[in-house]
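Lecture 7 notes: from sequence to structure.
We start with the chain below.
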Amino acid sequence: MADAPPMSSFWRGFRDGLPFLLVVGPFGMLFGVLATEAGLNVLETLSFSVVVIAGAAQFTALQLMTENAPTVVVLASALAVNLRMAMYSASITPHLGALPLGKRIVAAYFLVDQTYAAAAIEYEKRPQQTLAQKFAYFMGVAMPICPPWYVFTLIGAWIGTAVPPELGLDFVLPIAFIAMLGPAMRTGAHRIAALVGGTGALVFAFMPWNLGLICGALLGMMAGAEVERRQSLRAGPAATEDTPTPGETR
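Predicted structure tokens for the same chain:
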């Protein structure tokens, strides 16, 4: 495996990324349609997707922009939605952190939910891969996800209001997040964070400019961190008891 050319890893990643087109296509087109309906022109809509390349943050920012929310609130809300990217980055750094600066910038730009999920599974499954193979796989996954995101955004912007409401493209957003959220709920801390964050967002939904989302996200992160802290404290003494002292046999 370590002797395999990086291109074989690239094409394996490309194949693993292809199924995500089922979500990227309708999702990107929906954003293009809604952005033009909100008053953005085709170039602005495409630039939005190219610069931000984060669907949930784009929809959040777009909604707030249509409500004439202050710029600082738009930016803070988009940041709250995308805070998970910081965790993705920390998780993937042991695998790609040794890349040259230019490649790290490229990987950081293409680090989205789907590329991270596929890469994390791949790196755990094949830990013996070289750095070049890992980067090639990551880029392979990104290719059927990120460039099509721009293309479908552009298509949606061109179509604009011509898309009939009965087409029902708005169902893609909740389904996409449910599909990504479900497998991520692996630990009690994850589940508590999701429960508290979602409940908090609903409780504070009355707040203007979508500030309830920020409050819910902060509460969810604090709850998840507290659960992990308590679990670590409980595991600490148990681990100490199970560790033989020097000279002791079990």
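Points to note: The mean pLDDT is 83. Residues 92 and 120 are 7 Å apart (CA to CA).
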